[in-house]
Design brief:
The chain is α+β, with helices and mostly antiparallel strands and about 700 residues long. It has a domain of about 300 residues: Methylamine Dehydrogenase, Chain H, CATH 2.130.10. The protein contains eight helices and 35 strands. Strands 29-35-32-34-33 form a five-stranded antiparallel beta sheet, with no helix packed on it. β26 and β27 form a beta hairpin. α1 packs across α2. It starts with about 100 loop residues before the first helix and ends in an 8-residue tail after the last strand. Part of the small subunit (SSU) processome, composed of more than 70 proteins and the RNA chaperone small nucleolar RNA (snoRNA) U3. Interacts with DDX21, NCL, NOP2 and EBNA1BP2. One of its GO terms (biological process) is maturation of SSU-rRNA from tricistronic rRNA transcript (SSU-rRNA, 5.8S rRNA, LSU-rRNA). This is WD repeat-containing protein 46.
Length: about 700
């Protein structure tokens, strides 16, 4: 039977209930929380805590806190050592033989650079110059990133190359289909639609959808890659042209009488009767404008985002059935029966330019994707390529046996011409070079006369509408191999298309900004700005942007003493003189006038004179100079009608034979410029005829002839 241990033999006595709760026994690796007794193990040295900043509460309050004693052994942390990234090694222990980012070729960077570094920065203020330098640095960094991301564009443009001495124009479509892969071979097809032809066709901006309309009323739209039909209707009326709008969900059809808008289900949404007898359609995607050319000779711009006609321009050239757009600047090109091509913008009622292209009427025209070259064909059986970079001169000419009735450019600069039932394609050295008209690149014969041509975006495919239906040809190297997924994504979903449409509407370019040179929009029209400012000064009689003289504000506590006011004025004057330091080397006369006074056309009437410097001291009739205190009192009693910085005077007059020397009050006088002495500011000078002046002038400051001011 066990007995209870006696007190005093290693058993601690029981504690009172009022005592605090017994703490856990301390281990040897833990910090010491209570003073050690004699013979106990001291443990590790205790760290002293800074208790001076800790607020001490009342003794009666009991706050439960977590114990600061950890239950695991604490290991002292080592300070973090920053390693040199160049000295880091891989998992295998080997160093990177090519540290840093991969170098980018200079030629690739130049392709994406949009700033001409050959032009020096203008001599402007330091702040403006620093901003221009920062913009240049950001543009250079953006160009390098764009050039580096080009590595992700793995697709390369195709090409057709014959054997030694082989003419590629003799290679037929059957040979190309047999040589390419199955997916590319499926893009070549023929639609036999002789019952409703001839056909006009149009591809969407993404290159995924195809719409075509026949002369006998047949209208259809389909996904030509998967051959899935979207809609097919018969409008029971002649269809002259068809165009996709900003997306594949809307179609514009130029019918025999009016312009109609359909959706991708074939439902008629709008009938625009103000656009009647339309022959050709063009859609400007960045401006949301639908341009129509009619038999009556009118060029009409319709804003499809709001449904309003922006402009209706009379070309005064008869029937309009030849029209094309410049993708670079959104200028519409019209071909006329007198052999000229006119360039139009909705902001101008007259053509921007007229180019004499042929001795006969113009049958067809097309502009390449860069807006550099224009191809035209006329009744004189000639095919010409013009340079649109300001010269408008023909670069090359070729005489065709039957003449070209239809022309089109591809994304990479290939030119196709439809001549009867034959299609000829010419290629150049690259995207930025004009096509060579010496030898055709490809030739194909169709089952009927050509009625419409267009290259498919981002696909090496040429769509041809003819009297027998629709033909899709394979043309290697015609399109851009890589597309911008944020701008024209052929694989986008319905939700992505809706989001893109909202962003495109927010970024819509106003129709007033269409011009020949879009880069001129970023420049400042200095001549118009100066003319507008000059007219404003003439209308008001003074310069509203002129800097008012500095008047120090009154301060309290003895800080408005005369010495402090003079000190502040002198500081402002020194800053103005520092700005005008470049006028010191002009060598103009610096004589001090002997008399300064106001000469109104009637005495005893309040007038105002600009006071811009301490050296301009107005004097009364008796010759006594007015003090600053009297000026302030007069200003408070009778405010100036011309705003702050002008002092009203009543008892001043001029002396005979004096001259005028301040141009702010002389907007209409025949004057010459001079430098006013003591202020280093430009003024104007005109002869003072007599004691009186014109009534429209507010006042003149006179200077005597004998002062030597005019040299």
């Amino acid at each position: 039977m066990e007995t209870a241990p006696k007190p005093g033999r290693g058993v601690p006595p029981k504690k009172d209930k009022l005592q605090t709760k017994r703490k856990k026994p301390r281990r040897y690796w833990e910090e010491e929380t209570v003073p050690t007794t004699a013979g106990a193990f001291p443990g590790p040295p205790r760290k002293k805590k800074n208790r001076e900043l800790r607020p001490q509460g009342a003794k009666s309050t009991h706050i439960l806190k977590k114990s600061g004693i950890s239950k695991k052994p604490q290991v002292q942390k080592k300070p973090r050592e920053w390693k040199n990234p160049e000295s880091q090694r891989s998992l295998s222990g080997a160093q990177d033989p090519f540290p840093g980012p991969a170098p980018v070729p200079v030629e690739v960077v130049q392709k994406f650079c949009r700033i001409d570094k050959s032009r020096k920065l203008p001599q402007s203020k330091a702040k403006t110059r620093s901003r221009l330098e920062v913009a240049e640095a950001e543009e250079e960094e953006t160009s390098i990133k764009a050039a580096r991301s080009e590595l992700l564009l793995a697709e390369e443009p195709g090409f057709l190359e014959g054997e030694d001495g082989e003419d590629t124009a003799k290679i037929c479509q059957a040979d190309i289909v047999e040589a390419v892969d199955i997916a590319s071979a499926a893009k070549h097809f023929d639609l036999n639609l002789r019952q409703f032809g001839p056909y006009r066709l149009n591809y969407s901006r993404t290159g995924r959808h195809l719409a075509f309309g026949g002369r006998r009323g047949h209208v259809a739209a389909l996904d030509w890659v998967t051959k899935k039909l979207m809609c097919e209707i018969n409008v029971m009326e002649a269809v002259r042209d068809i165009r996709f709008l900003h997306s594949e969900a809307l179609l514009a059809v130029a019918q025999n009488r009016w312009l109609h808008i359909y959706d991708n289900q074939g439902i008629e949404l709008h009938c625009i009767r103000r656009c009647d007898r339309v022959t050709r359609l063009e859609f400007l995607p960045f401006h949301f404008l639908l341009a129509t050319a009619s038999e009556t000779g009118f060029l009409t711009y319709l804003d499809v985002s709001v449904g309003k006609i922006v402009a209706a321009l009379n070309a005064r050239a008869g029937r309009l059935d030849v029209m094309s757009q410049n993708p670079y600047n959104a200028v519409i090109h019209l071909g006329h029966s007198n052999g000229t091509v006119s360039l139009w913008s909705p902001a101008m009622k007259e053509p921007l330019a007229k180019i004499l292209c042929h001795r006969g009427g113009v049958r067809a025209l097309a502009v390449d994707s860069t807006g550099t070259y224009m191809a035209t064909s006329g009744l004189d059986h000639q095919l010409k390529i013009f340079d649109l970079r300001g010269t408008f001169q023909p670069l090359s000419t070729r005489t065709l046996p039957h003449g070209a009735g239809h022309l089109a450019f591809s994304q990479r600069g290939l030119l196709v011409a439809g001549m009867g039932d034959v299609v000829n394609i010419w290629a150049g050295q690259g995207k930025a070079s004009p096509p060579s008209l010496e030898q055709p690149y490809l030739t194909h014969r169709l089952s009927g006369p050509v009625h419409g041509l267009q290259f498919c975006p981002f696909e090496d495919v040429l769509g041809v509408g003819h009297s027998g239906g629709i033909t899709s040809m394979l043309v290697p190297g015609a399109a851009e191999p890589n597309f911008d997924g944020l701008e024209s994504n052929p694989y986008r979903s319905r939700k992505q298309r809706q989001e893109w449409e909202v962003k495109a509407l927010l970024e819509k370019v106003p129709a007033e900004l269409i011009c020949l040179d879009p880069r001129a929009l970023a420049e400042v029209d200095v001549i118009s700005l100066e003319q507008r400012k000059k007219e404003q000064i003439e209308r008001l009689g003074y310069d509203p942007e002129a800097k008012a003289p500095f008047q120090p504000k009154p301060k309290q506590k003895g800080r408005s003493s005369t010495a402090s006011l003079v000190k502040r004025k002198r500081k402002v004057m020194d800053e103005e003189h520092r700005v005008d330091e470049h006028w010191d080397g002009l060598g103009l006369p610096q004589a001090t006038p002997s008399c300064l006074c106001l000469c109104p056309w009637q005495p005893a009437i309040s007038y105002s004179v600009p006071v811009s410097s301490l050296s301009l001291v107005p004097r009364t009739r008796s010759g006594r100079a007015l003090s600053s205190s009297s000026s302030c009192s007069r200003r408070k009693q009778r405010p100036s009608p011309r705003g702050p910085g002008h002092l009203p005077w009543t008892d001043l007059c001029a002396e005979p034979g004096s001259r005028v020397a301040w141009g702010q009050c002389l907007p209409r006088s025949p004057v010459r410029k001079l430098l006013f002495p003591g202020t280093r500011r430009w003024g104007q000078c005109a002869p003072f005829p007599s004691l009186g002046v014109d009534r429209w002038l507010l006042g003149w400051v006179g200077i005597k002839k004998e002062s030597g001011f005019f040299g």
